[in-house]
Design goal:
Helix 5 crosses helix 6. By secondary structure, the chain is of the alpha+beta class. It folds into 3 domains: 104 residues, GIY-YIG endonuclease (3-Layer(aba) Sandwich); 57 residues, Orthogonal Bundle (Arc Repressor Mutant, subunit A); 47 residues, Arc Repressor Mutant, subunit A (Orthogonal Bundle), CATH 1.10.10.
């Protein structure tokens, strides 16, 4: 039986800068890491440790979300570009200032002084999209051109509860079979497809994945 766990990568400069879910020797592998992770580890190195062991993959996903939220509340987990649970990453361009500040020590403009600041992501936007329409933080981030972490921070700022993994995102439909799924993650697990490939079909970057087409449920 496969054993799953939640792991952390840390160094003296950043503390815990990355949390992930894995099995086997995943916590020690360097493949399939984002550019920010690679730049941090190239300059400062890292140590890997298992934070928590889990009996199932679903449990590991849920605990990954918990630990990322925990360390982000402490100002850490800088190399995590999502809330965890589904492995979805944010485009690296949103993190240019963060990478530069972290690796060079140069302070960058904050808040409204920053060109990347978006003051129209207010409480009304989040109530309408995240709460009422059940959009995910990833979807909202793409709509407004910011990172999903920015959306997550706004949710905390306005004290809007973060949804459990099984309640995040819109439902999707496989147009070829008519089968409905509660999330992209659920579809990927059921159909043995890659999450990001389904997402690319939904956003029109791919026509199909695994010979199947998908759309968001209206």
């Amino acid at each position: 039986m496969t054993k799953y766990y939640v792991y952390a990568h840390a160094n003296e400069e950043h503390g815990v800068f990355y949390v992930g879910k894995g099995s086997g020797d995943r916590l020690y592998t360097t493949g399939n890491r984002n550019k920010f992770w690679k730049r941090i580890t190239k300059k400062y190195g890292y140590e890997a440790k298992i934070i928590e062991e889990c009996d199932t993959e679903d449990a590991a996903f849920a605990r990954e979300i918990y630990w990322i939220a925990h360390y982000k509340s402490l100002g850490q987990c800088e190399a995590n570009f999502s809330l965890g649970g589904d492995g979805v990453t944010v485009e690296a361009r949103w993190w240019g200032e963060k990478i530069s500040e972290s690796l060079s020590g140069i302070s960058r403009p904050k808040g409204k002084e920053s060109k990347t600041y978006k003051d129209f992501i207010d409480e009304n936007n989040l109530q309408k999209l995240y709460v009422n329409k059940n959009f995910s933080t990833i979807q909202i981030s793409k709509m407004f051109g910011v990172s999903s972490t920015t959306v997550w921070e706004r949710l905390k700022q306005y004290q809007i509860p973060i949804k459990p993994i099984d309640q995040r995102g819109k439902k999707i439909i496989c147009t070829d079979t008519g089968e409905e799924f509660d999330s992209i993650t659920a579809a990927a697990r059921t159909l043995n497809l890659f999450i990001e490939n389904i997402r690319k079909v939904l956003f029109g970057k791919y026509k199909t994945t695994g010979g199947l087409n998908f759309k968001y449920k209206e």
